[in-house]
Amino acid sequence: MRARLSDIAQQAEVSEATVSRVLNDRPGVAPETRQAVLTALDVLGYERPARLRKRSAGLVGLVVPELDNPIFPAFAQVIESTLAQSGFTPVLCTQTPGGVTEDEYVEMLLDRQVSGIVFVSGLHADTAANHDRYRALIARPLPVVMINGYVPGIAAPFVSCDDREATELAVAHLVALGHRRIGLITGPDRFVPVQRRVTGWRAAMGRLVGLPEAELDGLAELSLFGVEGGEAAAGRLLERGVTGIVCGSDLMALGAIRAARQRGLSVPGDLSVVGYDDSPLMAFTDPPLTTMRQPVIAMAVAAVRALVDEINGHAAPHSEYLFRPELVVRGSTAVAPPATAGGGSDGQHPTPPALAIPA
């Protein structure tokens, strides 16, 4: 024991008496010194005494739709670390096509007697889904918090990025660069975030470009989320002469860039592209991607705090917390090509309100 005490004391740069006090959980030791001794135990491979082991406050489920899109691992990382700081052990549940469903994961989590569940972009975001599943969880009662997707009438905290404002800011950025034929690429319209993005894009195009609602239909493409969906949708928009595209995700934006290059077009010389998320590595793409940044850290921390409050019996407000997106300008957007700046693709329309959209 003497040898162990001396080793630990040397590693922690404290006296053996201090090590003894920490190991016996006695008072009179500063918190930072106590932590230094515990860290020395871990570094040297000694097992902490049972009385000093951190007890878990319980398990918390974290259900995410996938890990292919880097925005979801980003959310998972912050949520898991924030839960750990509150003493909870996160249980990550990742869905894959044809794999375990959200409902199956929930049953597994209930079997493990989790203290609560965080859903990220789950079925709560799908207007075609039956949301009674969440009402049943709340009635158990089981605290739940939902990120990016809102369902009226469910007594739970919701945390979302303001998708409508995001697309309005993206359109305003492209308009300021002289673009008028600005297309929208996003996912299936049954999802709440998609509906909000479409609404924001239509509002901005009407207000800033002067296009009536009827002329916008040909400039919006709803596709599958992902690179392939973005590529296919961008190809159709390029045939209609767009010079700028606002995308519903960074991966869709990368698909749009691929579609432009396959047609011999340069980005941003011939086509400007704006993504959504600012997921990791988007600053290092070619070109670096201009995108709407979701405040992932702030959203994740707010979701965990709301859940922990619910678990501890301090009910968080059962409403939607909207977080402001941030426009991050990089290299995928530039001034509109001269032939289109200030008018339509044929250059015959001097003012935005007169822009004609081909069928």
Q: How would you characterize this protein structure?
A:
This protein is α/β, with parallel strands linked by helices. It is 39% helix and 16% strand. It has helices at residues 2-12, 16-23, 31-44, 71-85, 102-111, 132-139, 163-176, 192-209, 227-238, 250-262, 296-311; strands at 58-64, 88-94, 116-120, 144-147, 158-161, 182-186, 220-222, 244-247, 272-277, 290-293, 320-323, 326-328. The strands form 2 sheets. The protein has a 6-stranded parallel beta sheet with strand order 2-1-3-4-5-11, with helices on both faces. Helix 1 (2-12) crosses helix 2. Residues 340-359 have low confidence and may be disordered.
Strand order of the largest sheet: 2-1-3-4-5-11
Structural class: alpha/beta
- The overall pLDDT, averaged over residues, is 89
Order of helices and strands: HHHEHEHEHEEHEHEHEHEEHEE
The radius of gyration over CA amounts to 26 Å
Give the oligomer, counting copies of the same chain as homo and different chains as hetero: single chain
Q: Can you tell me the residue ranges where pLDDT is under 50 for at least 5 consecutive residues?
A: 340-359
Count the E strands. Answer: 12
Helix content: 25-40%
**Main pleated sheet:** 6 strands, parallel
**What is the percentage of strand-forming residues?**
15-25%
Distance between the termini: 84 Å
Q: Please, how many helices?
A: 11
